Amino acid sequence: MRPRHAVQTNSKKEESQSVMTKELMSLDYPQEGETIAGPNYSFRISAPQDAPMVELCINQGPWQLCRQAIGFWWFDCSDLTRGLYQARARMHTNDGKVKLTLLRRFQVAQ
Questions:
Q1: pLDDT tens track for 28-83
Q2: Can you tell me the distance from the alpha carbon of 59 to that of 61, in angstroms, rounded to the nearest whole number?
Q3: pTM (2 decimals)?
Q4: Residue 63 exposed, middle or buried by CB count within 10 Å (0-12, 13-18, 19+)
Q5: What is the rounded CA–CA span in Å between residue 46 and residue 25?
Q6: Is 78 left (phi over 0), alpha (psi -120 to 50) or beta?
Q7: How many Cβ atoms are within 10 Å of 87's Cβ, its own excluded?
Q8: Which CATH homologous superfamily contains domain 24-108?
Q9: Which stretch of DSSP H or E encloses residue 73?
């Protein structure tokens, strides 16, 4: 992942300073509002390869362990039924912290 540059402004002093920020993790697919055609789907999560663990939660159910392959983390699902869903990923970091993605809303057509 590439670090992003951000500008932070101190409202009291009206000074700006350049700060490096790094996006550690994101739920790449499905995208927000995407419609999935059927019951089989592979969720893709961008997270550091050295993360001890990445998990996915669908509709506030149990956290499911993701697998690592070709530079991403994946969760393969084969039992999605027609309807609206939400998913969230979490990553355990090497320093013992837990990072969460925002909720991702999607639907299944069949």
A1: 999 999 999 989 999 999 999 989 999 999 999 999 999 999 999 999 999 999 99
A2: 5
A3: 0.75
A4: middle
A5: 5
A6: alpha
A7: 21
A8: Immunoglobulins (2.60.40.10)
A9: strand 72-77
